[in-house]
Design goal:
Alpha-Beta Plaits; 17 helices; 47% helix; diguanylate cyclase; Nucleotide_cyclase; GGDEF_dom; EC 2.7.7.65
Length: 434
């Protein structure tokens, strides 16, 4: 069994046959490390159960059902296969969900799938499945589990037929608006993930969806739903032709809320895949720029300062040229973990590209921002890297800082911080300027 690695952000615990581990270990690990998670391998049920019981909450637990045949050969050769599955399911720690790899040897696949999905099943995969495909699917599950920021549903209706408490429990904010003539302004201000419009409001102002979508600032990823009361086909046709994305029937508040929660979860997954760097799990350049613009707008409304930092690993090309790009990726991932430890709940952190990272500190002035970046720099300088079996090295980064409201836009903040980063490099590196 592999020891838990401190290098990678997430962990997968895999119970599989010895031959599966031997044949797939290196390729699985190579693919997993690209997505910033590690795989811990187990071939003994007792070791797996113990590890699962003490694992982190955000870990994934993967079981290759070929282990049932190990149990059959070693323990109970004369008993039916379903008894082995029952034994496995009973021994798994409760309070966890599991991902199952369904073996080719299983005969009645649908019956087995039904059994699995009713037994603490997070997901299942059918073999054969390539190592690369399996790892990508596991990464997608990690992405779904990331909490991220809260989501907003903006509803044009006098009495939204929704369960507020159910939505709030999923970090979804419901905002009500009643005036169709000013609705586009509210959409622009709140930037909601989903827009709901009741049939009554739609019939008062049938152009409302077209008005929203023709605005040059409208987010094409945002969805507009009609809540229909009468179920008249001609109204649904007109609404779809005028720009609505989907028709929802007005029903019990909890049912409608469940439909919207499922849609929000898909939106969260899509946003994470678009806006996050796969190697580190941090915001990428696109994700950071969008979120930073929102932070600037919120800071302006609340009269709060922002500190905007840009950092760059010193002599990173030399690191790659000397020890290889794979080692360079390890340095980047270790740096991302160091930086993350100093990021508050209301701060932003991004791998902006290559060895460059950007951070935004909420309600933070220049002096405090420089102090926080210096703490990060010193912490990273203490990290020891084993570059060869006999040799270790420590590395550094340089950084530049800019502040809002002195700089008014995200682009202006970046350009100013980047100038200060260049100054830090010119001054000898391993320092913060700003």
């Amino acid at each position: 069994m592999a020891e838990v690695s401190l290098l990678f952000k997430n962990k997968v615990y895999l119970l599989a046959q010895i031959f599966f581990i031997a044949d797939n270990r290196e390729e699985l690990l190579l693919n997993a490390h690209k997505y910033d998670f590690d795989i811990l391998f187990f071939h003994q049920m007792s070791d797996f159960v113990t590890a699962v019981s003490h694992a982190e909450d955000n870990a994934l637990f993967l079981i290759d059902l070929d282990v049932l045949y190990n149990m059959q050969a070693d323990m109970l050769q004369q008993k039916r296969q379903t008894m082995f599955l029952s034994d496995l399911l009973q021994r798994l720690p409760t309070g966890r969900e599991y991902i199952y790899l369904q073996t080719n040897r299983q005969g009645e696949r649908f019956a087995l799938q039904q059994r699995l999905v009713d037994s603490q099943c997070l997901a299942y995969a059918e073999k054969p499945i390539s190592n690369a495909n399996l790892v990508e699917k596991l990464f997608n599950i990690f992405a779904r589990q990331q909490t991220g920021s809260s989501n907003t549903i903006l509803c044009l209706d006098d009495q939204p037929p929704l369960d507020h408490a159910m939505l709030a429990a999923q970090d979804i904010q419901l905002v009500q608006h009643t005036d169709a003539a000013t609705f586009h302004l509210r959409v622009k201000a709140l930037q909601p993930d989903i827009v709901l419009i009741s049939e009554a409001k739609y019939q008062q102002t049938e152009a409302v969806a077209r008005i929203l979508k023709k605005n040059i600032e409208f987010d094409n990823g945002r969805e507009i739903f009609l809540i229909q009361e009468t179920s008249q086909p001609h109204i649904a046709r007109r609404a779809l032709d005028s720009g609505f994305d989907q028709i929802l029937n007005r029903s019990e508040p909890d049912i409608l809320s469940r439909q919207l929660i499922q849609r929000i979860q898909k939106i969260r997954t899509a946003k994470d895949l678009i806006s996050r760097d796969r190697a580190t799990g941090l915001l990428n350049k696109v994700g950071l720029q969008k979120r930073a613009q929102d932070w600037i707008q919120k800071a302006q409304q609340q009269g709060k300062p922002l500190a905007y930092g840009v950092i760059d690993i010193d002599k990173f090309k030399t690191i790659n040229d000397t020890w290889g790009h794979y080692f360079g990726d390890i340095v980047i991932k270790r740096l991302s973990l160091v930086l993350s430890a100093y990021i508050g709940e209301n701060d932003l952190l991004s791998r902006f590209g290559g060895e460059e990272f950007v951070m935004v500190f909420w309600d933070c002035d220049a002096q405090t921002g420089k102090q926080r970046m210096d703490m990060m720099r010193e912490a990273f300088g203490r990290v020891v890297f084993q570059v060869t079996p006999e040799e270790t090295r420590q590395f550094s980064f340089s950084g530049g800082l800019a502040t809002f409201p002195e700089c008014k836009s995200e682009n202006e903040l970046f350009l100013r911080a980047d100038e200060q980063l260049y100054q830090a490099k010119q001054n000898g590196r391993n320092q913060i300027c700003g």
